[in-house]
Amino acid sequence: MLALVGHAFGASGGIAQYNRDFLGGLVASGLVSDIEILPRHGPRTVETPPKIVQHGPRFAPALYAAGAIAKALTASFDLVFCGHLYMAPLAAIVARLGRAKLVIQTHGIEAWPQPTRLQRAAVERADLVLSVSRYTRAKVLSWASMAPEKVAVLPDTVGEAFTPGDGSALRAKWGLTGKRVLLTVGRMDGRERYKGHDRTIRALPALIQRWPGVTYVVLGEGDDLARLQALAKDEGVDDHVKFMGPVDEATLIDAYRMADVFVMPSTGEGFGIAYLEAMACGTPAIGLDAAGARDAFADGRLSLLATESGLLDRLRELLNEPKPDPEALASAVRQSFGKPVFVAEQKRLFDRLHGCASTGRR
Amino acid sequence: MCGVNGIYAYRTAASAPSQAELIATRDAMAARGPDGVGEWWSAERRCAFGHRRLAIQDPHPRANQPMVSDDGRYVITFNGQIYNHPALKAELEARGVRYRTTCDTETLLHLYALKGPDMVRDLRGMFAFAIWDAARQGMFLARDAYGIKPIYTCDDGWTFRFASQVKALLAGGAVSRDPEPAGIVGFHLFGSVPEPFSLYRDIRALPAGHSQWVDAAGPEQPKRYVSLASILAEGAARPSPAAELEARVKAAAGESVAAHLLSDVEVGVFLSAGVDSGALLGLMRDAGASDIRAITLAFEEYRGTPEDEAPLAAEAAARYGARHEVHRVGQAEFNADLPAILEAMDQPSIDGVNTWFVAKAARQAGLKVALSGLGGDELLAGYPSFSDLPTWRRRYGLLARTPGLGRLARLTLQGVAPGLLRERPKAAGMLEYAGSWGGAYLLRRGLFLPHELARLMDPDAAREGLRRLGLMRRLAAALAPDPGSDVGRVCALESSFYMKSQLLRDADWAGLAHSVEIRPPLVDIALLRNLAPVLPGLRPGAGKRALGAAPKVALPEAITARAKTGFTVPTGAWMATAGRSNVAGEPVRKGAASRGWSQLVFSGLRPPQQSLAA
């Protein structure tokens, strides 16, 4: 299989994580014998699982396309995986040149509005389109004219390392001992601004009245940081907000564990892997009943979804109660979104894709 | 006849089906099945079926549904009738199968256990069903060749749902109402929503003649197992002499009517003053039915005029010794029923009102099952389209196949004679559409042509809807493989569009709103196979003449003579009045009478407008 992706191994972010889970799962379950990854971003050299080769990144689009087409003409493969909609036209050409089946992955906001004609045409001729959530799938089907059976949902999965545990050391290190802690993990993107940092910051004054020590920890980076810092100041809560920047995975897991509530009142999640990670670490999560978050919360089975106006009430509710049994929450998350579930569902989808070879492209 | 529904949470992360939703969807179809009600849950509670029963074969509660096989492996929820059930039952019993009912439902269970999905090829009848296979942990759905019985599916990527009606799926509360522009455009073009689309993006019909498998990997694409076009093509490949026409029609129509009498309750007939229903009545008598009740719909407005069908229908009834019941309907009753009609109408339709009233009359007479002459014009070349389409193709086809010429002509007309273009858009469309059979059919049946849509709806939505509808591709698909003759081509087009998406769908909702099963013996796969060899040589009028001559005692001459002029019904005028006024500034022309009505039904049934823009 040839995989055209933005980034995969050696990169951070939800999409890179998904690509690693997805490609790793394919090889581990023997659905494909080996994978060559052509990334646009990422380190020059990187460690990958056996049977997966990741080439050095080629950022320049023309250079990247040339590389992919050269591969199509020289290498032999029967599947092309396209990790991002913007590469779909190129992936369609590569698949055609290589007489391979085309699988296109769709995540979130990139796939919601009507894409370019070329992107749409590529999606419409794909053999399988994967979406991380029902919402994204519905959006794809609203602009793509194709058999709905060719568009399947394969949800995000949560890594094995995300488990409940003792986060008190990190609490102490960050000076949060004895305080109520809210946590958000996500990019602070100045153009998109959908993650809902603003909403949480604006809810703080009311929470401080009840819990004077309450602290909002924000992990991640992005060009919207300065604006959010200013907002916290304007709201008079800058003492209660800690922007801790990007952290390594071990710290991230401890942060999830030590937080009382994970809150991300986002309106634009394709799925929202961070919700799963938090809940897998035993921390209750708050999300809005919007877009892909519904899937991450399993329609409210894992945790209730909030409305935008009900956010404050929901925060109060969760801060009021002692933290629920972390193991129970973590196990419920794994039951729906654990790695074995992901691998089993991926296998079903690819078995079907291989099974209907005669009804393939065109 | 019945109402079926089901919910299958096939993805691990999906919530188990909600019982409240299952029941809400099922009971939204209460009128489809007042005699029995049931629900079934798989052992893991990941799949659930619902059923409302109109008990016709083996009315005993032992045949209620969902029905589980003796070994517990298979479960079925089924809507329809299998007319070759006696033969299949005998065959299965000869193989050692033991029956516990005398119902065709059980035949489907045994046949599936024996043959798997291939069993659909053995079925003659009207049907839509789902079978859960506990061993394979999956669900098999199938629908009859003509699409007489409906089944709609909805997949959100985690959970698969199905039901006999669109509105029932919506009543469950879990299905998106986001609009499907292709369905909306299709309704404006044809006056009914063309399959597989509905007005809603997430709800689609399982196409006629298709089956579908759904398991933990989700739904597979529907697979075609039979096609009208190939039956017609096979017939054209071994044509019979025209001289055989009468004998063939007599034998085949008689055999079909006899098969359609299979029932444990009384079977009546809808009798108009036309040839089709009169011949059915005669053939019912030939098949041994006695004391037949015939229901005729007549109109107050026409009492005592030559347009009144009641006297001629009475003549036919008398000739065949039927008990004749005439139901006269007037505008007052129409107005009183209008809210209920709109409520029962599953998807918007510019027709169906006549069926509503005749089914209502049948119910009042205590009938549960009635034969209908529906389909005679499609099968035996009774429509003007059978002569128009070949003529247009001959006259304008060559010019229309010249690339760009038709469009150029239209744009030129727009400049020099815009009035002509507005008043006679179809004449102007000849050069654009008569180049293909599908295009010519659109000229014949379309209320509007695609380029007129921008006046009816948001131009962007119209463009997107046309793209998704892929009309010319769909029209062409009804003719693959080529039916091999002009009659065959028009028969395939009329059967796949007007009859399937309009007449049969109307017969389903309007009949079952009164808990009356309408059986169309002239819409039958075995009959089509029998007649396909004589269709290519069919001369205008000969098919209907043969049908009129099919009963042992021929139809009254007054009816066969009158058939040439036909009847009008006042319902079009009522509908136009009910639809308030026409669109401002729109010239009145053919189809425009139904314009007000289509606005009315559409405004009642369309999805919320704001999500169209989203």
What profile does the largest beta sheet of chain A have? 7 strands, parallel
- Quaternary: heterodimer
Distance between the termini of chain B: 39 Å
Q: Give me the side-by-side strand order of the main sheet of chain A.
A: 3-2-1-4-5-6-7
Rg over C-alpha atoms of chain B, rounded to the nearest angstrom = 24 Å
Poorly predicted segments of chain B: 581-593, 608-614
Q: How many strands of chain A?
A: 12
Percent strand of chain B: 15-25%
Number of helices of chain A: 14
What does the largest sheet of chain B look like? 7 strands, antiparallel
Q: Which radius of gyration of chain A do the C-alpha atoms yield?
A: 21 Å
Order of SSEs of chain A, N→C?
EHEEHEHEHEHEHEHEHEHEHEHHHH
The CA-CA distance between the termini of chain A, in Å, is 20 Å
Helix-residue proportion of chain A: 40-55%
> Which structural class fits the helix and strand makeup of chain A?
alpha/beta
How would you describe the overall organization of this protein?
The complex is a heterodimer of chains A (362) and B (614). With 362 residues, chain A is of the alpha/beta class. Chain A has helices at residues 14-28, 61-74, 88-97, 117-124, 134-143, 168-173, 197-210, 225-234, 249-258, 273-280, 293-296, 311-320, 326-337, 339-355; strands at residues 2-5, 35-39, 52-54, 79-82, 101-106, 128-131, 151-153, 181-185, 215-219, 241-245, 261-264, 285-287. In chain A, the strands form two sheets. Chain A has a seven-stranded parallel sheet, sandwiched between helices. A five-stranded parallel sheet of chain A has the order 10-9-8-11-12, sandwiched between helices. In chain A, strand 8 (181-185), helix 7 and strand 9 (215-219) form a beta-alpha-beta unit. Chain A starts with a strand and ends in a 7-residue tail after the last helix. In chain B, the strands form three sheets. In chain B, strands 4, 5, 6, 7, 11, 12 and 13 form a seven-stranded antiparallel sheet that branches. Chain B has a six-stranded antiparallel sheet with strand order 2-3-1-9-8-10. A five-stranded parallel sheet of chain B has the order 16-15-14-17-18, with helices on both faces. Helix content of chain B is 43%, strand content 15%. By secondary structure, chain B is α+β, with helices and mostly antiparallel strands. Chain B has 26 helices and 18 strands. The model of chain B is unreliable at 581-593 and 608-614 (pLDDT under 50). The A-B interface holds A 131, 133-134, 137-138, 141-142, 145, 147-153, 155, 295, 298-299, 301, 335-337, 341, 344-345, 348-349, 351-352, 356, 359 and B 11-13, 15, 155-158, 176, 178, 182, 201-202, 204, 215-222, 467-468, 470.
